[in-house]
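Notes, p. 3: input format for complexes.
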Amino acid sequence: MSKKDSILVTGGAGFIGSNFVLTWIKEIGSPVINLDSLTYAGNRNNLQSLNDDSRHIFVHGDIADEALVARLLSEHKPTAIVHFAAESHVDRSIVGPDAFIKTNVFGTFSLLQSARAYYAGLNAEPQKAFRFLHVSTDEVYGSLAPDDPAFSETTPYAPNSPYAASKASSDHLVRAYFHTYGLPVLTTNCSNNYGFYQFPEKLIPLMILNSLEGKPLPVYGDGQNVRDWLFVEDHCSAIRAVLDRGRLGETYNIGGSSERKNIDVVTTICDLLDELAPSEKIGSRRKLISYVKDRPGHDRRYAIDARKIKQELGWEPAAQFESGIRKTVEWYLANQDWVENVRSGAYQQWIETNYAERVAR
Ligand code: NAD
Ligand code: TYD
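Output follows (361 residues plus thymidine-5'-diphosphate):
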């Protein structure tokens, strides 16, 4: 990819999207058109450092707005679309699945239609270079028992939450556009991310902020559910590798080789906060842990077999969980202004909705 080739990123004001845009500008340096509808999860402050950078063009809009997307594509002629935009929180998908179907299924469908029309109108050379990269999740594969082998690219889909079902559905549409229309697609299925700019409704930032303030740490069920954690910048480097050298129509699993039980993640955060922000008033943060009512249909374990991306593309995560989580805690401590800014009325309302019924057990 040359310094002139622009890319269209969707959802680039969200957690992973904004990390992707920031690292893209740093590592590749070509222009990014960033289309984001700024839902509660989108935050322009994530990209504040690019305010005076002409390589970042922010567009406030919906992926389902085909006229807008067509205009952006014909104006900027991007060489790739990297599709992050989605509703992404399992608990919200349980409380209100509608938005998940609308954006993740219908929104992805609209974007594919726009991409297909754009691709058809390109000359042979730009057609050859064009890529549609769809960012998806390991949750499409369902849940593993403790001794099951990790998810590989051939594991059958078995989504269990409305979120996972909506992502599975979008993955299938992307696949169909390759086989039926020849759209040059790539799909990545990644494990749980953590890192800078993550909205504090997800496990890791929620636990960091509650620990800091001496609030209860709500662990669902018995705390033995397992996730494979990946530092977000490693996810971004994996996406760049797939975009650069991935085989068309293929899917690539991306993982951190860092399976951890939720309770172990939470105690690690407690100990880091005790070390980095000790408080006599709060004392040991582990005392704040509170087991609460489980999530309905809570997947027990996710694990990723990332051999394909390693063998084919030479990608491996750079961060270990222990160093990544320390950097993440330090980032939240150093960025209190960002935290205050995202904790709007909408955030407070969500905390009340999600935790009101989940009294400590
Ligand atoms: P996020 O919720 O933090 O960000 C989503 C972004 O998409 C927000 O900026 C939001 O404003 C935007 N958006 C939502 N609907 C839109 C629409 N209709 N049009 C335009 N923009 C819209 O999500 P995230 O955690 O950054 O996840 C990004 C992608 O990565 C998602 O597709 C998600 O399924 C996938 N993923 C996430 C994880 C994870 O651990 N967070 C893991 C694997 C895959
Ligand atoms: P989450 O960050 O919502 O990601 P996902 O559901 O996509 O894996 O949750 C990660 C794990 O942490 C999951 O097993 C649910 C659990 N969890 C809690 O125990 N307490 C909480 O308050 C939250 C938000 C999640």
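The chain has a mean pLDDT of 97.
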